[in-house]
Amino acid sequence: MGYSNKVIDHYENPRNVGSMDKDAADVGTGVVGAPECGDVMKLQIQVEDGVITDAKFKTFGCGSAIASSSLATEWLKGRTVTSASEIRNTDIVEELELPPVKIHCSVLAEDAIKQAIADYQTKQKS
Amino acid sequence: MQRAPAAVENPSPFDPFQCIGITRNFAINETALDDALIEASLRWHPDRWVQGTAQEQKQAEKNMAQINRAFGILKDPLLRAEALLTLFGAPLPTGTDKSASQGFLMEMMELKEEAESAAKNPETLSRFRTRLLTLEVQALEELKPTFESLQEDLVADTLSTVRGQLNRVQYLRRTREGLNLNILLGS
After folding, report:
1. Cβ B95–A108 below 8 Å, yes or no?
2. Catalytic residue status for A62
3. What single-letter DSSP state applies at residue A36?
4. Touching A: B residues 70-89, CB under 8 Å
């Protein structure tokens, strides 16, 4: 089965591709990978007063992995950190109509979000 | 009088070492592996069973297919290592690699970024491919001593070390294969 139109759209016009300063205090970075397919995904958030003001990603992987992270950054912008941590991979699967073999791509995106939030929170404590 | 072929043992998970008849070890003797293939083929090649019953022919075909599969796995160090770890009860995790450090993943990210820019020029591309291959060979070398200590004592710590080293090989190879794909797609 082929990719859904939504995946193709994100793949051809990825949103929020780029990098932020990973050492900045208001930036949280998450890098995750799947050795099986060799995919690597970097997702970063910028936070102000508990709200995510900007999100960027860079993904080396298949179309579904790129679409999942692109969609994730779209969803992250404007959300509170608490509400961002509630994004589930199943939401991404539903939105992008990912077939079962591509579900792991959405898991990658969820893990990247969690890691980026955890990284930001660790920075706030220190 | 030849005996009817018995099924080559096919336990779960598939044990290519047992199937082809060499010692279960990461370090293998390539010549011994080739010899083992020849020996197994002499015994099970379907051509040697044309006089046999339909059942024997079917079995020989099945056995030969398993032997070829085992050989393909054992010949490639990455697949061989994967098979060993599966037999040790630590197969390749599917999905997110929770054990990977951020530092390692960053390094892989940077390599992929480099791959992207190297792909723009045939000369830098070929140099980068050589570098990836060198890194892969190095990473495979690092696996040898870890597997050796694993062979003596199946410790969880060593198992996760070897898993990490193997994942490194895996990422490097996928990156290199992606490079080839970029050429095919002309990007």
Report:
1. yes
2. no
3. T
4. none
Look at residues B105, B113, B5 and name the one whose alpha carbon lies nearest to residue B49.
B5
Which of A27, A60, A119 is the best residue to mutate to test the B interface, defined by the most B CB atoms within 10 Å of its own CB?
A60
φ, ψ of residue A49 in degrees (nearest 5):
50, 45
| Average pLDDT rounded to a whole number, residues A54-62 | 93
Domains and CATH numbers, chain B: 16-75 (1.10.287.110), 102-185 (1.20.1280)
Return all residues near B9 (Cβ < 8 A) that are at least 6 apart: B15, B18, B19
Write out pLDDT tens, residues A85-112. Answer: 999 999 999 999 999 888 888 999 999 9
Average pLDDT over residues B117-138: 90
Q: Using an 8 Å Cβ cutoff, are A15 and A54 in contact?
A: no
Beta bridge partners, A27, equal A46
Q: Do B95 and A34 touch (CB under 8 A)?
A: yes
Tokens of B37: 């293939």
- Taking the alpha carbons at both ends of chain B, their separation in whole angstroms is 61
Percentage above 90 pLDDT, chain B: 39
**Is-contact A38 A62, C-beta < 8 A?**
no
Q: Which residue has the higher pLDDT, B121 or A45?
A: A45
Tell whether the model's pLDDT for residue B184 goes beyond 70.
no
Six-digit token string for A23? 């050492």
Q: How far, in Å, are A39, A106, B26, B170 from residue B141 at the CA level?
A: 23, 34, 11, 14
The whole-number average pLDDT for the span A9-24 is: 91
Residue A105 is a catalytic residue: yes
Contact B109 A108 (CB under 8 A): no
pLDDT band at A48 (very low <50, low <70, confident <90, very high): very high
> Whats the size of chain A, residue-wise?
126
CATH code for the structural domain at A5-120: 3.90.1010.10
> Residue written as tokens 């970024």?
B113
CB A92 within 8 A of CB A106: yes
